[in-house]
Every structure is written in C-alpha cells, then in structure tokens.
Write a structure and sequence with these properties.
With 208 residues, the protein is α+β, with helices and mostly antiparallel strands. It has one domain (2-206). Helix content is 47%, strand content 13%. Strands 2-1-6-3-5-4 form a six-stranded mixed β-sheet. Helix 4 crosses helix 9 (178-199) and helix 7 packs antiparallel against helix 9 (178-199). It is globular.
C-alpha cells in the first residue's frame, strides 16, 4: 500500500519516536546544506519545523500512486489513449518511460510526475539531490504540487471537495481499473498536501 505522509522528515525516515528525535539534527543539517546549494530566493523558502508533533498519513491504495501519475501523464497527451488498467510497473509503458528519461520537463504536471518528496515553498523547477537517508531523488515544491493537482482536477475530474473525500474508499488494486485507482491516489495525496500546506510541512510518498 502506498502512503502520502505529511510531517517532519525525521519522523518519516525514523522507525520510532526516539529515533526521530535523534535524527532531527541530521535532517536540519541536510536542509541547511540544501539551502546553501540553491538560489537564495528558493533557499529562504525551504523552512519548516522538524520538531513539529503533527503528521498525517494518506492511504493511496496499492496502485493509486502509479495510477495517478499515469493518468496525469496521459491527461495532457491528446495523441495517446488512456490505458484501461494499471500496469504492474510504470516503466512498462513506453511513452511514460520516454518522458521519464527527460524528467517530464515539458509536462504541466512535472512536480507530480517526477517527485516523491515535496518541500514547503513555491519554486518552479524540481531538483535532483541526495536525501537524508543517503539516496538520491527528485524533490519538488509543495505549493506547485498543490497547483498542479488543482489544475489536473479542473481539466479532468472536475470534482468538488466532498467528492474527492469519497474517492478514499475506491479500489486501487494491482492491475485494476486505472481511473478508479487514479481517483483513490488523488484523494490520499490531496488530503496530505492540504494538511502539509496548513502546517507548512513536507510531504513524502512511500510507494508500495
């Protein structure tokens, strides 16, 4: 099951509350290094409370994260037909794989498609950086992610807030209907993003 977690990064990477407290200083040092490596205007925005005691976990279902990104990718490609089912791996979709190799630079939904981690702030480009756990991945802007999800909803689902909440119970099983799974993924991520905006905290997706 994929989850979208809004909260301090030390709590995301730690296996216990005690470990999170020990990791906090390391995450703050990582953030300082990141702030120093980007433009000043961006670095000033990368600020949140790693000692915050609030967090939220949104359930995206087994295939909701994959389905949501594939749906968003096809939503802006009038020349392609949306698949009926969620593929076992996104990389099995040839068109997706070609766009991913280019880091979705031409996409209206680049922050949604390319990143598993979004930090508080409003900056237009994604950044490939070492993460606190030693891995390297793409990070994006929480504010831009929220805008891209809003735009995706306006162009496709056209759902109101209550309808989105109801999608949290939709099936999102492996190989299941892509549209239902995409709605399930959207609901879980949307709720986490709104929580994170309210509390000015990062969001991380933990895949299945």
């Amino acid at each position: 099951m994929a989850t979208a977690i809004a909260g301090p990064l030390s709590r995301f990477y730690a296996k216990s509350t005690a470990e999170a407290a020990r990791m906090r200083a390391g995450v703050e040092t990582w953030r300082e290094d990141l702030q120093g490596s980007v433009a000043k205007k961006v670095g000033e925005q990368l600020d949140w409370d790693e000692s915050a005691q609030v967090s939220f976990t949104g359930d995206l279902g087994d295939s909701g994260w994959q389905a949501l990104r594939l749906f968003a990718f096809y939503a802006e490609r009038d020349d392609l037909e949306l698949p009926d089912r969620v593929p076992a791996l996104l990389e099995l979709d040839r068109e997706w794989r070609a766009a991913a190799d280019q880091k979705f630079v031409r996409s209206k939904y680049g922050h949604l498609l390319a990143c598993p981690l979004w930090l508080p702030g409003d900056f237009p480009v994604t950044m490939r950086v070492p993460l606190p756990n030693g891995e390297t991945d793409e990070i994006g802007s929480l504010n831009v992610l929220a805008d891209q999800m809003r735009f995706l909803n306006q162009r496709t689902f056209q759902a109101d807030a209550w309808e989105i909440v109801g999608w949290a119970t939709l099936a999102a099983g492996p190989g299941g209907p892509l549209l239902e799974a995409a709605k399930r993924g959207f609901a879980g991520l949307h709720t986490a993003v709104q929580f994170a905006l309210m509390h000015r905290l990062p969001v991380v997706v933990r895949p299945t």
